[in-house]
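Work Package 3 committed the consortium to producing structural models of liganded targets before the mid-term review. Because experimental data for this complex are still outstanding, the team generated a predictive model from sequence and the ligand definition alone, so that downstream docking and mutagenesis planning could proceed in parallel. The input record is reproduced below exactly as it was submitted to the modelling pipeline, together with the SMILES string for zinc ion.
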Amino acid sequence: MRYHENHCTECDWNASTEEYDSHTAVGRAAIDHYLETGHSIRSLSLTYPDATESGLTT
Ligand SMILES: [Zn+2]
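The resulting structure, written out as tokens with the ligand in place, is given here.
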């Protein structure tokens, strides 16, 4: 099972594969938020049972 989430470090914005159809769509939503606000986005990818957190997605 894979779960991917992008969340903003500066406000409550977030997007995940629970809301969007694909990892790509989540990434696109994050880019839109970044372009609109200039906020920093962090991405979190979980592939069960392992969980890893990776850095900025632009
Ligand atoms: Zn934000």
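Reviewers should note the following from the model. The longest strand covers residues 2-8. These observations will guide the Year 2 experiments.
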